[in-house]
Amino acid sequence: TVYSTCLPTDLGYVKKLGADRAIDFVNEDVYKIVHELTDGLGVDYVLNVLGTDRATKDIDILAFNGELVVTAGFPDFDKINFYEKGLSIHEIALGLALTSEDYRAKENLVQIGDQFANLLENQSLIPPKITLISLEEIPEFLNKMKNGKVTGKIVAKLYN
């Protein structure tokens, strides 16, 4: 079962991408809803892309032996009761693998890319909507993003 959070304007889009339940993080209490949906047991995995404060709070909705994956900051370790949930915390730092001298890390990126390509080819993974914009449109789209008016990803073409 996949629960995902999103802006209210993206609820249908996120469900179309495959979420079993899309939660409007602007108007709904994500943590209360997850608690209710899981009968208080919590979820097995959380992918946090928002930062330290949310990562710290995400631990509250992890099930026993749950795993937290972060891309934008670890939780505040001073606020975690270790040995309470048997949790695992993982960092995704693919960019560092590219710049490292570690051959294994680079080979792992190749494997991830191959698996990702297979998922796309088999249509097991639906990529987000991509909007291509010009350099001149960047300020307009930054405003749209700030105001929650963008669905999917924006790619700016910087040259002709």
Quick overview of this protein structure:
By secondary structure, the protein is an alpha/beta fold. Helices cover 35% and strands 23% of the residues.
Question: How would you describe this structure to a colleague?
Answer:
This protein has 160 residues and is an alpha/beta fold. The protein contains six helices and seven strands, in the order βαβαβαββααβαβ. The strands form three sheets. Strands 3-4-5 form a three-stranded parallel beta sheet, covered by helices on one side. A two-stranded parallel sheet has the order 1-2. The chain has a two-stranded parallel ribbon with strand order 6-7. β6, α6 and β7 form a beta-alpha-beta unit. The longest helix has 19 residues, at 103-121. It is globular, with a radius of gyration of 18 Å. It starts with a strand and ends with a strand.
